[in-house]
Write a structure and sequence with these properties.
The chain is mainly alpha-helical. It has 16 helices and no strands.
Length: 316
């Protein structure tokens, strides 16, 4: 589920919080990190479950039309294609999906009904939805394609301010994870389209990523003061008050990764933290983080503190 880019971001957020609060409890920081990682998986289930919520809203809309005293011809003979879509049907019959959503309270409850109805109305106005509804064919592949279009439509999910507000109210740990989760949902729907099933996801994408997350946090926290000294000694006219705190945390975390993970190339580490700085710091942070981190890591490589081993990991 969670890749190493997102792990680095989550470690950064915990490390930033630790330094801002003055806490030095590694155990509590590790608990927060693992909880944050698990909450991303929760968000994945919740967003995927939107397919069921939208189907239920479509069924309710049809039932309301049929109960009208003077229904239109369309209401008397409704098109049930979306209300009977096979993606929602699959999820409603998937034991592990239903159990996980039920156990962790990831259902779209009545409180969210106004949002679901607005989503359904917005979807119904889309040309790709009208084309889908006008087609007489019915297949799992076609239904998957529709939901892939829905979940990749930025107007509906990623840039939906009302949805963002609901998600923030439900969990602060879901902030900034929606884009990543939407991509994961789309990949799962593509798997469902091709293979007729969705594999049950784990919190981490790879088996050793949990260890990577915990070891990176520990290395950054325990070595923070030492790595801060490296930053100070590498900065001319050092003035802590003029340097953005997020930049410092990113650079220190980058040093910790470079020193403690000999199997990760320096270029990968530098590029990762430069990219993260684009989203979590100032406009000029990219240049600052890139230049200072590169300078410090080269010094530590020359002194022998950083040693990279293995084919392709020795940076000339």
């Amino acid at each position: 589920m969670i890749n190493r880019r997102l792990i680095r971001i989550k470690v950064f957020k915990v490390l930033y919080s630790v330094e801002a609060s003055g806490s030095d409890s590694l155990i509590e920081a590790e608990k927060t990190l693992m909880y944050s990682c698990e909450k991303t998986l929760h968000l994945y289930y919740f967003i995927l479950n939107a397919a069921v919520a939208l189907k239920n809203a479509a069924v309710a809309r049809i039932d309301t039309g049929l109960k009208k005293f003077n229904p239109t011809s369309e209401e008397r003979d409704p098109n049930r294609k979306f209300a009977e879509n096979k993606v929602s049907g699959y999820l409603e019959q998937c034991p592990w999906f239903l159990k996980y959503c039920g156990d962790h309270g990831l259902m779209w409850t009545e409180t969210l009904s106004p949002l679901v109805r607005k989503l359904l109305s917005a979807i119904s106005a889309k040309d790709y939805y009208k084309e889908y509804m006008s087609s007489e064919t019915r297949s799992l592949a076609e239904d998957c394609e529709l939901f892939i279009r829905i979940f990749t439509d930025e107007e509906l999910f990623e840039d939906n301010e009302a949805l963002a507000s609901y998600l923030e109210d439900m969990s602060l740990f879901w902030t900034d994870d929606l884009g990543y989760v939407l991509n994961s949902v789309v990949r799962s729907l593509d798997t469902l389209r091709r293979r007729g099933m969705i594999p049950e996801p784990d919190v981490f994408l790879k088996d050793d990523d949990r260890t990577f997350a915990l070891d990176l946090l520990k290395a950054a926290m325990t070595g923070y003061d030492k790595y801060m000294e490296a930053v100070v000694s590498s900065t001319s006219n050092w003035d802590p008050e003029r340097v953005v705190t997020t930049d410092l945390v990113l650079i220190i975390q980058g040093i910790a990764e470079a020193v403690n993970f000999p199997n990760i190339p320096l270029k990968v580490t530098i590029n990762e933290y430069v990219d993260i700085s684009k989203y979590y710091s100032t406009r000029n942070s990219r240049v600052f983080v890139n230049g200072l981190l590169d300078r410090i890591l080269r010094k530590k490589t020359d002194s022998g503190e950083i040693v990279k081993t293995g084919r392709g990991l020795i940076d000339n």
